[in-house]
Amino acid sequence: MATSSEIAVLCSQAPVILPSVLQCDYSNLEREIHRFEEAGVKGFHLDVMDGNFVPNLSFGFPVIEAFRRVTELPLDVHLMISNPEKYVSRYVDAGADIVTVHAEVLEDPRPLLDEIRNLGALAGLAINPPTPVETIASAFNSCDLILTMSVMPGFGGQVFDDLALEKLRWLRGEAPDAVILEVDGGVNEQTIADCVEAGASALVVGSAITGQADYTPCLAQLNTLARRGL
Ligand code: DX5
Ligand code: ZN
User: Fold this and answer.
1) Which helix (H) or strand (E) holds 203?
2) Which of 101, 148, 165, 188 could form a disulfide with 198 if both were Cys (CB 3.0 to 4.6 A apart)?
């Protein structure tokens, strides 16, 4: 796992961009990880999909373990799966520093979030675009991170839904200050400043980075634009 100081750095450097590696080159993962590190990323966002909660499959424990072997940066694992309670401990064992589960599959997310914390990782709670943000208020005290989805999860490269901005503004006012507010889906050069202005402190960016030949200028430009939202 990343050390607690690396995670503290991650949390303190808001707004921080976390690349979603869903569409990166898996034929040479180590080289891809180094390309992101050389571009200056502060952590990785890893999208786990089960073909049930979302209509797509991605990867599971072996890929998380591979990232853990190659990088010391924090790993932010987004579980888009139907039965997260069965698997969270294995994702922490695999090297996840942040484990995010979806509110839509949990009647009461608090016990699982508390379990994630007890396992030594940060606990994240995600909501899809149709899920009203007020429904997770009772779980705030069990959350280290709240993930507002700005697309329906399952695929990279979709169009940002502005409804996420309203949710972020509400969360900035209502959630404890220490909670990391993350946004995921369609974040790019056009939308990133609005996300920060609305209160996001962690910005997941997939295709807007992995679609570029050189990650370094792309990340620099996204960082500049993100800071305009402060
Ligand atoms: C969507 C995933 C996202 C996605 C982001 O299901 O959770 O992390 O890969 O990709 P872009 O930035 O291309 O929308
Ligand atoms: Zn994600």
Assistant:
1) strand 202-205
2) 165
Quick one: pLDDT at residue 2?
A: 73
Q: Give the residue, by CA position, lying nearest to ligand 1 atom 6.
A: 153
Sign of CA dihedral 1, 3, 78, 213: negative
Pick the closest to residue 124 from 46, 67, 68 (CA basis): 46
Termini Cα distance of the chain:
30
How far is 121 from 89, CA to CA, in rounded Å?
A: 10
For ligand 1, pick from 21, 46, 47 the residue to mutate: most ligand atoms within 8 Å of CB: 47
Tokens 């500049």 belong to residue = 224
> Tell me: the pLDDT tens digits for 64-74?
999 999 999 99
Residue 106 CB coordination number (10 Å): 18
Is the pLDDT reported for residue 10 higher than 90? no
Minimal CA–CA distance to 16: which of 4, 25, 7? 7
> Which ligand 1 atom is nearest residue 150's CA?
14
209 CA to centre of own chain: 15
Q: How far apart are CA 166 and CA 170, in angstroms?
A: 6
* Rg of the chain, C-alpha, whole Å: 16
Closest CA to 202 of 177, 179, 176: 179
Q: Which atom of ligand 1 is nearest to the CA of 45?
A: 8
